[in-house]
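Support request, please re-run this one:
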Amino acid sequence: MLKKRFLLVASVLFSTTIYSCKKETQDLTAVELDNAAKIIKINNSNVANRVDLNNEGLVLNFQANAATLNDNVTTDALTPAFPYQLVYKGKIAPQVGVNNNALSALEVSPYGNYYAIAYQTPGEAYGGGVDIFQLQASGTPQLVSAVSTTEADVTCLSNGNGRLYLGMDLETHENYNLPAPSVAGIIKVEGNSLTQAQVVGLQGYSTKDIKYNESNGKLYAASANNGGISIISFSGQTATKTAFQSYGEVKSITFSNNDIIATNGYSYATFNPTTAVIGNYKHWIIPSNQEGIGSVASTPNGNFLFGNNYYLIYVDKSSNAVLHQVDVAGSINSISIVNDKIYISTGSSLIVAQIENDKIKILARIHFPTTFGGSFNVLKSRVIGSTVIVACGDRGTYIFDLKKI
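Re-run finished. Output below.
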């Protein structure tokens, strides 16, 4: 998505800038709390019903589609390799923006018995939010609270240690004495209620990824356009940026064993988990031709799965060698690994794969327009137990049961 370009004083690529912030051990000031409340507006009352249960119970069958895949990959959705169906439980229509427009559902983050959906305004305008929902005993979704950010897109989100973390692009950052449009929002979670919003200024124009590391209690944010990797530390409930490393057009963050890895369309690098100093830097052997595409995930053995607009690529972490690659017939928007299965969001499809003997094997795919009609843009898929949640832009968020046949 192209927004208005934001120009910062350019920093030398890969130069290290460490921020030491005295206020890390201090309480938030009244001004900081007031500014955060103006940017992040929390509504813990009953949310207007945007849940659509039409066609609940509809069954979607996974299909093999070898004609559009790499010839070296054999697939058969009718074998026991992936004997599952998706049972449709309903969808959540997107939030409506200030101009009465449907926002775009980008990301889903589960926490406890609740799930959060991030939204942004498509195109040049700004405005977004977050929905909080839970699943009823029947598996159908129920909205319980919401956040609106009328001055900012929410581009990504995650959670951990009783908080939601929002990556945001804030149009009016100068009004709040923040250094750049790229900011991190932090909200304390108490059951289904949200409280104590904070905003931490980052670097660069657009926040691309945000992840909380349970092992060290730090938050990592990736920002593009004169941005890089920011580290946010906590003293009690107070969050402060404590380190930053520039890194060109950064797209994704992943944790590989004890390493912090960030990627863009043409490279990936290791960052010190405390200082953000850049370590190992390697070029992808098969780069994207679009800098903004570079989804990455870490496999249980520490290797990488990298998705671009050509292939799903399995890379050996130690040698940077490509172990295998497959053409999934579309640009890869997200990769998630659950147990031994890989779920890939690409275009209008959800693809399931696994790695066998260092080879990627495509097991099955579902093409959503075949069932629901119209155009789809599957931006993020999440599998939590037997629940599959798919964020599909202005189509909203679709919820399914993953049922074994």
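Residues 4-26, 66-77 have pLDDT under 50 and may be disordered. DSSP finds two helices and 32 strands in the chain.
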